[in-house]
Amino acid sequence: MVRPMQERAVQTRKLILRAAAESFDESGYHGAQITGILGRAGLTQGAMYFHFKSKEDLARTVMLEQAADLRLPERPAGLKQLVEITLTLAVEMQRNVLFRAGVRLAVDLEGPAVRDSSIYRWWTDRFNDELVEAHRKGELLPHVNGAELAEMLVGAYTGIQLMSQITSGRKDLPRRITSIWRYLLPGIATPEALAGITLADGAEARP
Fold this sequence. Notes:
Blueprint: H1 2-31, H2 34-41, H3 45-51, H4 55-64, H5 79-95, H6 97-108, H7 112-115, H8 119-136, H9 146-168, H10 173-188, H11 191-195
Helix pairs in contact: 1-2, 1-4, 1-6, 4-6, 5-8, 5-10, 8-9, 9-10
């Protein structure tokens, strides 16, 4: 009996997270209501509060688990892989509601709810892993500080996706991310590394 109950609890939690992600994605943190989330999930308040203490707790969990459905490379491979990851994320922003909601919540929320989630740090570290490998392989120019570059990329990505959301509902996000790399790569990558990178629109990242 214990195992079916555990499985049911796992499925209930997934239902709540999915419904919450849809609500936060559509209405933001302040516009989403617990009653609406429960209505989407077809569950009671008791079911929700068994898994989550509050709306803020639910939002924090969506932020933390935004990458749960993403298939990212397990091992860092360097600059080319970093470019590919960011372009993959641009596509995921268009179709993955959990990822999209997590990103929106990180923009909507302020204070401890965001600081405690450390989601910006998580992505910064993930990008930096690729840059550490790129440095080891000699793909970066001598002046490049990988940790600073990773922070800049996360910040730029946050701003660009927000601009894309406002102007086109994120339809042009892959193109905007490609443009970032077209201008950025010549200033950070060695000529040999540049020669091995082709951007999403087929253009080579040449200086």
